[in-house]
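Dear Dr. H.,

I hope your travels went smoothly. While you were away I took the liberty of generating a structure for the chain from your last submission, since the lab meeting agenda had it listed for discussion. I wanted you to have the full record in hand beforehand rather than looking at slides cold. The sequence, exactly as received, is reproduced here:
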Amino acid sequence: MARSLECRRRKSLSCKNRELFDPHAVAKGVKVVEFAAFAAGPAVGKHLADHGATVVHIESRARLDGFRAHYPPYKDNIHGLNRSGLFALCNNDKLDITLNLKKAPQATELAKKIVTWSDVVIENFSPGTMARLGLDYESLKQINPDLVMLSSSNLGQTGPHAHHAGFGSQLSSLAGFTHLTGYPDGAPQILYGPYIDYIAVAYGAVAILAALDYKRRTGKGNYIDTAQYETGLQYLAPILLDYKVNGKVAGRNANRDPYASPHGAYPCKGDDHWCVLSVHSESEWKALCSVMNNPRLDH
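The corresponding predicted structure, in token form, is as follows:
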């Protein structure tokens, strides 16, 4: 009887925990303002908007969000400020305000009014920019004491490399991704676009949800300093551990995969025809044999 009650108690706690960390439950009704561009900031806001938050994207007509102009695809393959598919992908379901933050003090005061309305601030400017604008966390919490703020930058807000300029593609190389991408006898290969930005997005979104949950339980805000480079290193943890423990230096494996076989791009009949296969389990292998109509391989 006691064991049965304990099991029911654990099940109840498990249900409460699921409710506690349900992104919809935490984000719904939350008001977010983002002083951000490209991916590392706006894509965090996008996920919050997808889960019910009201998100206001701030940009200046003097310097529009770079995804509007610098990255395809464009509608009908025609370049234009409101034709970028990538900008739309990172900013769906948001409101947008144009505000030139360099026109202080009027712009700063207006920005602070928007922050007073908000629960969360997201920014991905270079370290020190928000402070020069009078919009750093220490200043903003004076007008919004329980504010949750995320700063997402290349190498963090402090430290010897904090002010090194860069973009997600440089961080991919700095973290080691390009050393691992390509053919063993070839040169390192760059990953398309700001790859590490999107890793930082996942960490930033979860960190904000955790901070909102903490705020709901304690009434206190939080400041989150995300170094995008460090989030990228998390994806390389097994390789770093293998080197630390076994002294093994990882290299480029082309299309090979340590956990899948067959895995690769294989030539087919015809001119430049290819078939890409990735089989990770016995059930997937059986399915492949069935599609190939060759059950003899399944033995």
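Two observations you may find useful: The first helix runs from residue 2 to 20. Residues 263-297 form one domain.

With kind regards,
E. W.
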